[in-house]
Amino acid sequence: MGRMLTWLGLGNRQNNESLPLWHGVDEKTKWGSLLVCMGIAFVAFLITNWLLEGTSSAPTYLALLISAGTLLISTLIAERSLTRVTPEEKSNEGD
């Protein structure tokens, strides 16, 4: 796991420590991306619920599961794409 985090630029090369969640992201960007993720999940719920409305064999909780999965994946992508390592931290990795 440490090698993968280092390859992605999210880990410390010396002791394989991973970065904390939302490292280097300001609060406004973090909450804005979370609101966008919630919006995407809500839209996924509405579309799935609308598509499954006419079927009698689909369970009622399927739309909730799909929207929860969408929220999980979109939040993960947003968090990892916004995480930044500052130049000071990169220079400390080689010490």
Give the arrangement of secondary structure elements:
Elements: H1 2-7, H2 27-52, H3 62-82, H4 87-93
Helix pairs in contact: 2-3
How does this model look, in words?
The model has no long low-confidence stretch (mean pLDDT 78). The protein has four helices and no strands. Helix 2 (27-52) packs antiparallel against helix 3 (62-82). The longest helix has 26 residues, at 27-52. The protein has 95 residues and is mainly α. The chain has helices at residues 2-7, 27-52, 62-82, 87-93. It is elongated, with a radius of gyration of 19 Å. It starts with a helix and ends with a helix.
Report the major sheet: none
The assigned structural class equals mainly alpha
- SS elements, strand count: 0
Low-confidence stretches: none
SSE string: HHHH
The number of helical elements comes to 4
> What characteristic shape results from the CA principal axes?
elongated
Radius of gyration: 19 Å
Strand content: under 5%
Q: How helix-rich are the residues, as a percent range?
A: 55-70%
Termini, distance in Å?
A: 22 Å
> Mean pLDDT, rounded to whole units?
78
